[in-house]
Amino acid sequence: MTKIESFNSSDPIAWCPGCGNFGILNAWKKALAEMDCKPEDILMVSGIGQSSKLPHYLLCNTFNGLHGRTLPVATGAKIANHKLIVIADGGDGDGYAEGGNHFIHAMRRNIDISYFVHNNQIYGLTKGQPSPTSDENMVTGTTPEGNVLCPERPLALAVASNCSFVARGYAKEMEHLKDLMIKAVKNKGFSLLEILQPCVSFNKVNTYDWYEKRVYRLEDKPYDPFDRKEAFQKALEWGDKIPIGILFQSRRKTYWELAGLDKYEEPLFKREREKKDLNGILKEFY
Description:
Blueprint: H1 21-34, E1 42-46, E2 61-64, H2 70-80, E3 85-91, H3 92-98, H4 100-109, E4 114-119, H5 154-160, E5 165-170, H6 174-186, E6 191-196, H7 208-212, E7 215-217, H8 228-235, E8 242-249, H9 255-258, H10 278-283
Parallel strand pairs: 1-2, 1-3, 3-4, 4-6, 5-6, 7-8
Antiparallel strand pairs: 5-8
Helix pairs in contact: 1-6, 3-4, 5-8
């Protein structure tokens, strides 16, 4: 059994004390250890943001790329080496604003990767601007009279897109979050796991106390995540009650199956390539 300590990085952590990202990092280490993974088996791809620093604090293969461009890199890596566990990791700004178009098409393709989105409803790295998920009328440094825009509902978008796996966790409930992480990774197809996490420096509304009065586990009562209509209603539920757990699952074929790649055992990057005359190919364009 792999030990949690196997995933400890030597990089100093630059998050604020009390940041919800600490709970996410600890839950992820527990999940990897429980799945008996090795650091070399994992690729974590991230963009820009406080959440996107997480791969630096975890011993594994890491690609830290451009803002909002996490999913294209993760997609390419998974197609090149389907034996890797590929995790895209980012925040609500990185994933739902700059990366919104990639998010939609990753769900459509149903690539076998997991997307962990840390949702603190604020831009933390750039000091507190409203994000796509910030509540209406929220006062921030750039909206002193209140945010005039209504919030995006990414999980409802995911259900509407027939996403393979849609779940939400909460950073303080680490055991529950760990279990959701494992289920997301084991799901065949694109898995979205949104993780609610307080920003103790810039979001004074959605605090630990605020969440703890509202979050409840879907699995505490009978609930069928394959019921798309009910899942859509749960995905829109936000305010006095906020559901966490698996909201939706579908039985779609993965990109790997649709493209006929499942017949290959050997990863793409290891296969023999047909040798061609490069000069001959170039002459076609010049």
